[in-house]
Automatic annotation (TrEMBL):
UniProt enzyme class: lyase
Gene3D superfamilies in UniProt: 6-pyruvoyl tetrahydropterin synthase/QueD (3.30.479.10)
Name of the gene: Pts
Gene Ontology process terms (BP): tetrahydrobiopterin biosynthetic process
Organism for this UniProt entry: Tachuris rubrigastra
Cofactor(s) named in the record: Zn(2+)
Protein task: Involved in the biosynthesis of tetrahydrobiopterin, an essential cofactor of aromatic amino acid hydroxylases. Catalyzes the transformation of 7,8-dihydroneopterin triphosphate into 6-pyruvoyl tetrahydropterin.
Protein name according to UniProt: 6-pyruvoyl tetrahydrobiopterin synthase
GO MF term set: 6-pyruvoyltetrahydropterin synthase activity; metal ion binding
Enzyme Commission number: 4.2.3.12
Length: 151
């Protein structure tokens, strides 16, 4: 079978991890933190069952391999996700156990950036398209790397 043209595809994979955190900025007073973050500023923190979904894509050559029939070996992707997401974040207190969050507020936006940066170190260049993190069913953050605001 000879392909008429290269077949392109995007691959998505999800993991779920549990972690706790406290939304608190060292740049604000305790009163300002309470006003900004409300109950999420509880000194004892609170937890989530986060769901991280990755969309893998290469702008030019994300082609389905004609021999393996795959865009990327899922076993490799699972190992990358284990190292970049599960090991540093699962069952952790983000603010205390993850050095990145010692100086960065552990919002879902920053969790998405953390995951992106960790995966970028492991994946072949240009492969990661976006990271989508579900903090709850209602709160979802999508991060596509450094984008500049138009206009």
């Amino acid at each position: 079978m000879s392909p008429r043209s290269a077949r392109l595809a995007r691959l998505s994979r999800s993991v779920t991890f549990s972690a706790c955190h406290r939304l608190h900025s060292k740049s604000l007073s305790d009163e300002e933190n309470m006003k900004l973050f409300g109950k999420c500023n509880n000194p004892n923190g609170h937890g989530h069952n986060y769901k991280a979904r990755l969309l893998i894509s290469l702008l030019v050559s994300l082609q389905i391999d004609p021999v393996s029939g795959m865009v990327m070996n899922l076993t490799d992707l699972k190992e990358y996700m284990q190292e970049a997401i599960m090991e540093p974040l699962d069952h952790k207190n983000l603010d205390r156990d993850v050095p990145y969050f010692h100086e960065v507020v552990s919002t879902t936006e920053n969790v998405a950036v953390f995951i992106w940066e960790n995966l970028q170190r492991l994946l072949p260049p240009g492969l990661l398209y976006k990271v989508k993190v579900h903090e709850t069913d209602q709160n979802v953050v999508v991060y596509k790397g450094e984008e500049t605001k138009a206009g």
